[in-house]
Amino acid sequence: MYYIVESHKSFEQAATDLEAAVKRNEFGVLHIHDLGNTLRGKGVAFAENCKVFEVCNPGQAGKVLSTDMRLNMALPCRISVYTEQGKTKIGMIKPVPMLASLSQDATLARVAHEVEAKTRQMIDEAK
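Structure (tokenized):
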């Protein structure tokens, strides 16, 4: 259900490299949520770092939404760069199994496979 890789890069370098990989692979970064800083800013003792990248390819999103508008709740895709016990990791919830639990549509399955291949490539390039 998850695709997670460990990186030997610093947290910040992995985040920078992921953003570049997203753009190289014809997706856009819609927003970056800095969950670590947000939690610390709210007074939560949180030692780890975590940035969640909302990424989207408009063409693929259009195919999904024109087939089943309810799937707007699963968009955009999210890729996270985070630390865990001193290690930097990059990961996502795989689109194919997630979509399979929401729809049996063959067109959507093809889109999910294409998106998963691209997002996996982005993660591998950034690691």
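Helices lie at 11-24, 35-41, 58-67, 95-100, 106-126. The domain at 2-126 is CATH 3.30.310.70 (TATA-Binding Protein).
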